[in-house]
Design brief:
The chain has nine helices and ten strands. With about 230 residues, the chain is of the alpha/beta class. It has one domain: P-loop containing nucleotide triphosphate hydrolases (Rossmann fold, 3-Layer(aba) Sandwich), CATH 3.40.50.300. The structure holds BIS(adenosine)-5'-pentaphosphate.
Length: about 230
């Protein structure tokens, strides 16, 4: 494992293979984006890949849409195929953050069997009531995909994107009843990964409450501590 991190405007670089794990709304995507920007490694979000496929009406999107709209996980085979293709890309050789994958034990086993050796799995822990508030309040620009939150990060003009003026919409799976299904799927199919990675000595628990910078600071601190 090699790691470089220079402060003061210079490029930071970190050579690690990380997974962000946690229930829907725990901040995996938000924190992965912050850390990837800081350390110049790619973020691989299966949720983003699937949503793009749905928007593009590809065969993958057509297969995944019904599951996603209901808050259910799409099939392991489909997801494992997507990840294998992403990890073959040259920019993933030295490190990445997987955000939203693996989400089942068979997905974790497939990743391991493909020869990928993860450095750490960060589990973001957030109380359920907070998760629901974060997800129901999210709005996404229909044109440029910029995200807002009606309470925490509202746009200057209600309902419209600050960046491009596009209309802000709620994700179908962010409706309260669908969030319930997503949380059940997490409990039923994903939570067992906590023990799976705990048993391998890879799991790092991070308190996921507080503002974005506080949480990001906790993750960076954990990385610093591991490195010592
Ligand atoms: P995916 O997009 O991965 O959804 P998810 O994990 O269920 O939930 P989110 O991405 O919404 O949560 P997050 O933890 O990333 O939080 P975020 O940073 O976005 O997957 C969508 C669907 O695709 C799945 O349901 C499934 O159908 C399918 N899928 C994807 N991967 C799959 C796989 N591997 N296997 C099978 N199916 C798969 O933040 C959420 C909100 O909270 C935002 O509004 C954000 O602004 C806000 N927020 C974040 N941090 C804070 C904070 N500290 N304070 C206040 N608000 C915050």
């Amino acid at each position: 494992m090699r790691r470089e991190c220079k402060e003061g405007g210079q490029t930071n670089r970190i050579k690690m293979k990380l997974v962000f794990l946690g229930p829907p709304g725990s901040g995996k995507g938000t924190q992965a984006k912050l850390l990837c920007g800081r350390y110049s490694i790619p973020q691989i979000s299966t949720g983003d890949i699937l949503r793009q496929a749905v928007r593009d009406h590809t065969p993958l999107g057509e297969q995944a849409k019904a599951y996603m709209d209901q808050g259910l996980l799409v099939s392991d085979d489909l997801i494992i195929g997507i990840i294998a293709e992403c990890l073959r890309k040259s920019d993933c050789g030295e490190g990445y953050i997987l955000d939203g994958f693996p989400r089942t034990v068979p997905q974790a086993e497939a990743l391991e069997q493909s020869g990928e050796v993860l450095d750490h799995v960060f589990l973001l822990e957030v109380a359920e009531a907070e998760l629901v508030g974060r997800l129901t309040g999210r709005r996404v620009c229909s044109s440029c995909n910029q995200e807002y939150h009606i309470q925490f990060y509202p746009p200057s003009r209600e309902g419209y994107c600050d960046r491009c003026g596009g209309e802000l919409l709620q994700r179908k799976d962010d409706k309260e009843e669908t969030i319930g299904h997503r949380l059940v799927e997490y409990e039923r199919r994903t939570k067992s990964l906590v023990d799976y990675y705990g048993g391998k000595g890879k799991l790092r628990r991070i308190a996921g409450d507080g503002n974005l910078e506080t949480i990001s600071g906790r993750i960076r601190q954990e990385l610093e501590d591991i490195d010592r």
